[in-house]
Amino acid sequence: MATTVLAFSVVEKEKDYQHLLPQIIQYFLAQRQRGYWRNTVESASITSTILPYVLESNKNFTAPAAIGINGDTSITINSFPYSTTLSSASNKPIKVNKTGGGIAYLTLYQTWWNEQPELVTNNFEITTYFKKNDQKVLAIPAGEKVKMMVKVNVTKDAEYVMIEIPIPAGCNYASKKQDYFMHKEFYKNKLIVFAESLSKGVHQFEIELEPRYKGTYTINPAKAALMYFPILYGRNGMSKVEIR
Questions:
Q1: Can you name the residues that pair with 68 across neighbouring β-strands?
Q2: How many whole angstroms separate alpha carbon 102 and alpha carbon 147?
Q3: How many whole angstroms separate alpha carbon 214 and alpha carbon 148?
Q4: Which pLDDT band, with edges at 50, 70 and 90, does 113 fall under?
Q5: Rounded Cα distance, 154 and 201, in Å
Q6: How many Cα neighbours within 13 Å face the side chain of 233?
């Protein structure tokens, strides 16, 4: 953050690069994920650096901000925070505009069921496999404990990462161990791991499972994504496992 504050001051004096300033401000705002920066010194340095530029580029900064959304329905938002869900039944384009002063932070996302998910490796590279007695296995025996191994190769340092690991339908958890540096939530169909930070490199996770029902089962892709920027993610492909 201190380096970025310094970079902002440098870029602000270079006319050819001033188009980067709004993006740097967006980065600063994105770091206030819990409503504040990490400490008083960081807050003071960021505020004193960006405030003169913000006030100069937005003369009516103190005017109340409003956001208009036009699509299947029209909405005007002037009280924040605000959230809503819009239908996409008609596939009508959604237009968003802002009036008034200040800086409004807007997040848009869309959800749908992806029947044929493709491999995504831009930010995280994920591989999964099973181990029995420290040996990699393609089929797992019913009634005997196995470990589902998940390797996540982080292509660059990441903060606040959520890792979603589906487990085969024929398995139950043999144990539900928590780690000191991470929080885990165990669901019937998947394990979700929350990591405050993951450094660049390979990180390995293991899940102790107890296969119970024979058959061939589909394993949905495991996915790692930034919690506050879920468009930055990675996943492996779909696979199958046999329980004998």
A1: 76, 97
A2: 52
A3: 17
A4: confident
A5: 5
A6: 18
pTM of this structure:
0.64
Q: Confirm if 165 and 222 have CB atoms less than 8 A apart.
A: yes
Query: pLDDT at residue 37 above 80?
Result: yes
Query: For position 173, what pLDDT does the model report?
Result: 94
Residue pLDDT, tens place only, 63-90: 899 999 988 888 999 998 999 888 767 7
For residues 52-69, average pLDDT: 88
Hunting for tokens 């239908």 — which residue is that? 87
Distance CA 161, CA 9 (A): 30
- Domains of the chain with CATH codes: 2-57 (no CATH), 60-112 (no CATH), 124-243 (2.60.40.690)
Residues facing residue 139 across a β-bridge = 242
Residue closest to 127 by CA, chosen among 231, 226, 204:
204
Whole-angstrom Cα Rg for the chain: 23
